[in-house]
């Protein structure tokens, strides 16, 4: 496991790559939030990462978030300004853990989950801004609302619009935007096309919503975050580039 000085070096390198990608797209790097993905690493790694200047942390399993966050807060204090992102798919029997421990949810993909989360959030008096996860590449292993052919398929678009309208009517779950995953091991031009289609989908969706909100885009991981930023990502979820290969 890396210590805070090693993480700081890697953080600086990732930040420089974020800035270069943003500059190539004529964007400001300030519009890109780096979510440091700490899944599988112990609480001590998060503490080292905090000491290295990181403040947004991503976990993909709610049990792991629920176990790790209190350990980190016991060590650092609860109000040091960290934001905890739940980035992985949620099963309906675990919505209570997400409601209690996540600050941002990146993988909302079903109305049933939204309803359960909203009820659990109301109970604990919290709100959880959420990205709707969309599946643009059609890979069977990927979760998310099917928007594989959204440009042609009005039914796919309507399902997304309905979901987001429901969220707008649910004060506990304000919609932030869209999240997507690129296909595994695909050539760079295919990955770029997926991210571009996600941005265009968000632009279409914004036009369907009252007040035309600016929607955020959670896309890009270690192997493709620069392409994602060039295509409009506002949140990149990066693990291995910051912390090295996961051991499990
Ligand atoms: C693990 C994970 C990441 C980070 O992956 P790296 O390749 O380590 O950057 C991003 N998003 C999700 C949903 C993940 O599960």
Please write out the topology.
Layout: H1 4-24, E1 33-37, H2 43-51, E2 56-59, H3 62-76, E3 83-86, H4 95-101, E4 104-108, H5 111-124, E5 130-135, E6 145-146, H6 154-168, E7 175-179, H7 188-207, E8 216-218, H8 225-230, E9 235-238, H9 240-243
Parallel strand pairs: 1-2, 1-9, 2-3, 3-4, 4-5, 5-6, 5-7, 7-8
Helix pairs in contact: 1-2, 2-3, 3-4, 4-5
Pyridoxal-5'-phosphate is lined by residues 37, 39, 60, 87-88, 221-222, 237-240.
What can you tell me about this protein's structure?
- Helix content is 45%, strand content 15%.
- It contains nine helices and nine strands.
- Strands 1, 2, 3, 4, 5, 6, 7, 8 and 9 form a nine-stranded parallel β-sheet that branches.
- Helix 1 (4-24) packs across helix 2, helix 2 (43-51) packs across helix 3 and helix 4 packs across helix 5 (111-124).
- The longest helix has 21 residues, at 4-24.
- The chain starts with a helix and ends in a 5-residue tail after the last helix.
- Pyridoxal-5'-phosphate binds at residues 37, 39, 60, 87-88, 221-222, 237-240.
- The site of pyridoxal-5'-phosphate (PLP) has 11 residues, from strand 9.
Identify the notable features of this structure and list them briefly.
single chain; TIM Barrel; 9-stranded parallel β-sheet; 9 helices; 9 strands; globular; binds pyridoxal-5'-phosphate
């Amino acid at each position: 496991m890396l210590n805070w000085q090693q993480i700081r070096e890697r953080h600086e390198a990732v930040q420089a790559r974020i800035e270069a990608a943003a500059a190539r797209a004529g964007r400001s790097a300030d519009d890109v939030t780096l979510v440091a993905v700490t899944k599988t690493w112990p609480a001590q790694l998060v503490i080292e990462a905090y000491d290295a200047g990181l403040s947004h942390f991503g976990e993909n399993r709610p049990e792991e978030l629920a176990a790790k966050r209190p350990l980190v807060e016991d060590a650092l204090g609860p109000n040091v300004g960290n934001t905890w992102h739940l980035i992985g798919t949620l099963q309906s029997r675990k919505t209570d853990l997400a409601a209690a421990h996540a600050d941002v949810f990146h993988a909302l993909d079903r109305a049933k989950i939204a309803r359960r989360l909203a009820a659990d959030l109301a109970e604990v008096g919290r709100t959880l801004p959420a990205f709707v996860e969309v599946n643009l590449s059609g890979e069977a292993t990927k979760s998310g609302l099917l928007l594989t052919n959204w440009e042609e398929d009005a039914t796919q678009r309507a399902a997304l619009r309905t979901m987001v309208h429901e969220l707008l009517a649910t004060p506990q779950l304000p919609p932030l935007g869209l999240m997507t995953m690129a296909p595994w091991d695909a050539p760079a031009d295919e990955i770029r096309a997926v991210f571009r289609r996600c941005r265009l989908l968000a632009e279409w969706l914004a036009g369907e919503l009252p007040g035309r909100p600016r929607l955020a885009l959670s896309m890009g991981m270690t192997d493709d975050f620069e392409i994602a930023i060039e295509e409009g990502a506002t949140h990149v979820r990066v693990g291995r580039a910051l912390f090295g290969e996961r051991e499990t």
